[in-house]
User: Fold this.
Amino acid sequence: MAKIITADEAAAMVSDGDTILVGGFLAVGSPEAICDALVSSNVKNLTLICNDTGWPDRGVGKLIMNKQFKKVIASHLGTNKETGRQMSEGELEVELNPQGTLIERIRAGGVGLGGFYTPTGVGTPVAEGKEIRVINGREMLLEMPLRGKFAFIKGFVGDKHGNLRYQATGRNFNPEIALAADIVIAEVDHLVDFMDPDDVVTPGVLVDYIVRRDI
Amino acid sequence: MAKIITADEAAAMVSDGDTILVGGFLAVGSPEAICDALVSSNVKNLTLICNDTGWPDRGVGKLIMNKQFKKVIASHLGTNKETGRQMSEGELEVELNPQGTLIERIRAGGVGLGGFYTPTGVGTPVAEGKEIRVINGREMLLEMPLRGKFAFIKGFVGDKHGNLRYQATGRNFNPEIALAADIVIAEVDHLVDFMDPDDVVTPGVLVDYIVRRDI
Amino acid sequence: MDVREKVGRRGARLFKDGMLVNLGIGMPTSLSNYIPEGIKLHFQTENGAIGFGPSPEKGYENPYLTNAGANPLTILPGGCYFDSATSFGLIRGGHVDATVLGVLEVDEKGNLANYMVPGKLVPGMGGAMDLATGSKMVVVVTEHCDRNGNPKILKQCRLPLTAKESVDWILSELALIEVTKDGLVLREIAPNTTIEEVQAKTEAALVIPGEGVKLMEY
Amino acid sequence: MDVREKVGRRGARLFKDGMLVNLGIGMPTSLSNYIPEGIKLHFQTENGAIGFGPSPEKGYENPYLTNAGANPLTILPGGCYFDSATSFGLIRGGHVDATVLGVLEVDEKGNLANYMVPGKLVPGMGGAMDLATGSKMVVVVTEHCDRNGNPKILKQCRLPLTAKESVDWILSELALIEVTKDGLVLREIAPNTTIEEVQAKTEAALVIPGEGVKLMEY
Assistant:
């Protein structure tokens, strides 16, 4: 059984300096109530692993505006100009990854792999400092796994066993993020008793806490 | 639209010497009608990539009994003694992989990765001849991708667009195999017009042909 | 016809029936307006859908169904959703038949640069590197020269690359160029230009094929 | 009580509430019969399910729902299905809290051998290497000696390994042994034996902890 908590209780678990992974693509499929609670808790010096930095008023972008990160690992920052400002003024360290490499690094961290070779990024600034190896006649980069202390994910429907299901493109990074953290907290729009086991996308055993939106 | 064909038409596409991937775990979730048609077609010298070699009268085991393979890449052979006999008498080459490594090699082949590092198999016969590397303080083996010419998979429900859904533990290797072959042929128990896009497990664009069981 | 319509009409005829296609934001999206009759394409959006349809009517948006630019989408019968690992598995694994991208620079080796200008703020590459590296056919659509009239089709890219040796076709309002091992082969020119004008506006040397250069049709 | 019941009863008390557990075929399965009240476990089968229940009644089998030995299963409310890549992602990624395995040999470094005997036909390792390598806690259950009375708990495994330095607990009908950096610590002995007898039947040296050796309870 996943324990049901409030967004504030979720945010209170996070300490200054922690690494957090947050689901969502331009804030679609991001846990908004948890993001709001993290802004209120005002925890600082976090490292963020997320596809992007959302919008100034949506998703993890709200934490960017509140200057809660010391480092961001993402694939795109263009929808939140404050991220760029903090980066260019040296307030924020940013590591940009190709989106497919970023999600695969998170997956590797979650499923116990020590890294993988990918053709993406060969011959580009992404390859700097990385091992290059020719495999089956093609140049490949070695990319390493990523993990964090907390995963904050967003499900459309959750059940009391922690099983999750997403809707449409709200799925995005959420299922892989749920594998790659010590503590997984899922915000859900709807909570049900249980679901058809063939319908489950994220197995409930991965989810430690559930934050409900429907109460 | 996936083209709807018979099992015999599917089998007729395969030539002597081809590499085929077949879904199923001890024949649960294996395309039985296609396996029967491959036995009838009597195509020879195939290489098989499959979790196991099924049973003498179920799944790919039927092709084993008919001596249609020159090589098998699998994780387990114990339920089909004929595989062991062919192997020990030098009629069949067998490469055994840990099950998690096997499915991940197939996935790597399907998603365009050049290989990955895994801790599984370190210090065991599986490590022989493989690169070992210490990553994050842990010894890891480099494992390489696998692909084939044909993927024969088994869905519970398919739609006319090729989208597939599985039932229970019949899913197993099928979704990854669908990514790792040039031509993908899915046998389905039931064919519908279309399904809820959130219910799809294997995207229809991966499936070239469908073999129906329900007619 | 403006540049977008010219590029859109000709570009759409590069597709074959049944292809899985990913269109970048901006000019690439315009191709979807001109798909020839009898050609059915599957459109992928890298945030996790195949088979999306036109934008929804106002008031019928689903906040959970958007494209890679966070604009609302609809889904067609036969469509499906998946997570980002699967989406980029499809892209990097060569399951996407065609990707159409805009560029800052492209060169005669098929190198392309479209995500950063040193000294300027880098918004990030998003999915562009994976799309350019993994897709079976990479089509670059672009105005032939930049705002200052300088060539964008170069002997060698000067900006940091998005992907190395990955472009198959370059399409502008003036020309359709195929990237081959022997260099940039000029396949078609627009009705209002000449081979000489196209070459003058292209830094890289263009190869004139033995079978001749066709007039572009829209 | 036979060996299976002894091992099953004591082994089941190694679990904590809420654990995700994978039980190997044979003796390991017997632990599921003795889970203490108040302890709810989630059972995984590596062919793709969590939360399976008892075997179905005859006539109610679902041919698509089986365990890793192809025997029919039922699923409990809250259970779920997934593909093999996810299943072994859970295993290798450390999400499985406890795995119970049978062995041919286990040694004082926590090495274990349970899948091949050179010269004999090798049926294959199936999921055993991943389970032994990836699970947070690896429990070996075994008869203390083999059929000929020879120790199975060795100074160093002689058979090819299934996994290196991965065993946490060794449980037999005679003893419960913890694998530590300082060697094999004898935690409990069965009521009908002595420390001396256990050591005599164990090739590796057993460490007697300062806090003493407990009597095993069932």
Remarks:
- The mean pLDDT of chain C is 96.
